[in-house]
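We keep the chain:
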Amino acid sequence: MSDAVLAALRGVIDMHVHSGPSPYPRRLLHYEAAQDGWDRLGMRAMVVKSHHHNTVMDVLAQAHQLASIPTEVFGGIALNSPVGGINPHAVRLSLSMGGKVVWFPTISSGRHIDCHPEGGHFPTSTVHTTTERIDAVGADGGLTAEAREVVGVVKEAGAVLNAGHMYPDQIRVLFTEARAAGMDKLVISHPNFVIGAEPETCEEFVRLGAYVEHEVGMYNPHRENRHFEPETLFEWISRIGPEHTVLASDAGQRGNPTPVDAWLGTCEALLDLGLPEKDLRRMVVDNPARLLDITD
């Protein structure tokens, strides 16, 4: 591994880690992911995500193991059917206990169910889980009352509002109303995976103040079952701009490389393609630090 990629990733902040525990099979626990991140990259912080539950509880339960690891670990909540869908009470609980990110429906979104009609197992769960479709947009074309309340709760807490796996048209409604409410911590994850948001649509979201998050685990050239080639990611960054882009791992699942290995493989490929180191650091350190209010 080159010295250039190690230097560029020093202090990386990973906003999308799928470590465990989880109903889905995971390669490592949260504190193990944090330790590996610190040992190999000096990882400054990470956000752990579950499609099924409030991960703040996991972080608190692993506090003893995390106490000796300098990497700061945050949790959040995804608004799928296991937590009651778009549930303002669950959101308040997560954020009041230290949560940093609220994901609108992922495996319960209509778009995700369209892509995975076998029942939401993504890709295979270790226990039987049921997934009920959850919509943030009502028949009138606006946010539902619950979704609007959640937007207010997230704004009050200063947390990150992530669009989940919703249809692009629903994301547009969400971001438009959030922007009108004065929010500027908006994120759309992997627009070209499941969601199906074209670059011109993401440019529209950027004008509403959103960041486009791409998951390096999907582009890792050392992963046989990668979804895309690194050149595709380079093209997205060139079009959207590093100032509006966040990179995250979306790794930790059993059968995939560790988050750190995903970072190293994809980011070395980006540097080889000509991405300036300063642009890489903006996407992996500066932009996520702003979103998570990390100042040191």
Summary: DSSP finds 13 helices and nine strands in the chain. Residues 3-292 form a domain with the TIM Barrel fold (CATH 3.20.20.140).
